[in-house]
Amino acid sequence: MRGKAEEGGGVWNGDRVQPAGRAMERRLSAILAADIAGYSRLMGEDEEATVAALKGHQQAIFPFVTAYGGRIIDTAGDGILAEFTSVVAAVECATEIQKTMARRNAGVPKNRRMEFRIGVNLGDVIHDETRIYGDGINVAARLEGIAEPGGICVSAQVFEQVDRALDIVFKAMGSQVLKNIARPVDVYAVDWEGKAQNGSGAAQNLELEQRVHFCSAPDGVQLAYSVIGSGAPLVKSGNWMTHLDFELKSPMWSGIWRELAAHCELLRYDARGNGLSDWEAEDISFEAWVSDLETVIDAAGMQKFSLWGISQGCAVAIAYAVRHPEKVSRMVLYGGFAQGFNKRLLTDSQKQEAAAMIALTRIGWGKENPAFRQMFTSLFAPEATKEQAEWFNELQRISASPECAVRYMQAMGEIDVLPLLSRVTVPTLVMHSRDDARVPFEAGRKLAAGIPGARFVTLQSKNHFILPNEPAFHRLLEEIRLFVET
């Protein structure tokens, strides 16, 4: 922040604020200071575009200050100086600004992104009628100066107030010598990666405003879909055992939807026979699944997007990407396979095991006693906590009927997209858990080997569905975000 703040007020000169000689009072305030990293470079490259983008960002984030009980003191140049009576509210406002800017920057080339650095300090400040002065402001400005682009640095006084009050992870940066500040300041930075890894923080607290819509497949089956979040468009192909509403409250899945919605415009839908879509469907087949993906994408008006497949949804995504390469910018495949169990070379023992699974599903899927469904839970998420296992047991019961579950298993056994792999032309990321008990690791490796130029990432987990309390969860999210936003 540079230049004169207001006529009759003090002047911010980059080192300190000079009082203007009015009657003043002192009080304790939380100060938020922010500016845009590399603003001078952006102006030098394209002045008109930079000013226009800055005004748009300011219109989006300035209301947050008032919403969190603060008041804007100065907006000179690319900066913001705001005062709050509550230090908790000041930090909440800072995280809301950074979260919003991350969404607004999605899809913008990295060299043209405007990323705020924010500092928050709690200190004694001097007030006159319109201005505030003092080292409390100077420290906040210096904290902003050492913050990473998109980051938040706070003083120890702030950390002590908000550490237990807010669901945010901080990392200690130690004692820092700040320019023109007499004593070293103990500094803490918001640890965005720590938040993603343990499922806490701003994205976890994000209220997902989901509106479910319906569209009709060519054979009349009603399909439920929703779009949440904002940013780079990401479409998830349908797979077995989903429920649009139930998943948002899930100890297994809500974390991943919230984290992705903080960065992406995420389209999800329940495949036919699942969740909020029609359970009664005459056609349960691979071709029907691909057709349903086409139907939902057209209904949602998606034009160009990244495509994400999970488990058998990977094969559906592959078929769609081959048929519609002009719509798919990138493709992410996780826990998938090219051939179902009936198409792979199976031993007699494996064939008997598959037949036994289908028979048990037909008998025990819909029963109140979850003993039969626990078998599936142990395969999909062997390291689930008691709460997660109970939720997944219930998901099975409410997501599909026993008859539909059996038909899904039989149809998945017939999948064969092996001939399509060499025809994939979009950049592709393939991820698979090393010790996946449901879909063998080798199946994921073969997917990556068959798709030209595909990148393969091994996740260190035993779970088919990665859990939010394991390190692989953070790796999964990080890889998706980086790949989709590139």
Describe this structure in words.
The chain is of the alpha/beta class. The chain has two domains: 3-190, Alpha-Beta Plaits (2-Layer Sandwich); 205-485, Rossmann fold, CATH 3.40.50. Helix content is 40%, strand content 22%. It has helices at residues 39-45, 47-67, 87-105, 135-146, 156-162, 192-198, 202-205, 244-247, 254-261, 286-300, 313-323, 348-364, 371-380, 386-399, 402-413, 441-450, 471-485; strands at 3-4, 11-12, 17-18, 25-36, 70-74, 80-84, 116-127, 132-133, 152-155, 170-176, 185-190, 213-216, 222-228, 232-236, 264-270, 305-310, 328-334, 428-433, 455-459. The strands form three sheets. Strands 4, 5, 6, 7, 8, 9, 10 and 11 form an eight-stranded mixed sheet that branches. β10 (170-176) and β11 (185-190) form a beta hairpin. α1 runs antiparallel to α2. The chain starts with a strand and ends with a helix. The model is unreliable at 1-22 and 195-206 (pLDDT under 50).
What is the strand and helix layout of this fold?
Layout: E1 3-4, E2 11-12, E3 17-18, E4 25-36, H1 39-45, H2 47-67, E5 70-74, E6 80-84, H3 87-105, E7 116-127, E8 132-133, H4 135-146, E9 152-155, H5 156-162, E10 170-176, E11 185-190, H6 192-198, H7 202-205, E12 213-216, E13 222-228, E14 232-236, H8 244-247, H9 254-261, E15 264-270, H10 286-300, E16 305-310, H11 313-323, E17 328-334, H12 348-364, H13 371-380, H14 386-399, H15 402-413, E18 428-433, H16 441-450, E19 455-459, H17 471-485
Parallel strand pairs: 7-9, 14-15, 14-16, 16-17, 17-18, 18-19
Antiparallel strand pairs: 1-2, 2-3, 4-6, 4-7, 5-6, 7-8, 9-11, 10-11, 12-13, 13-15
Helix pairs in contact: 1-2, 2-3, 6-17, 10-11, 12-15, 13-14
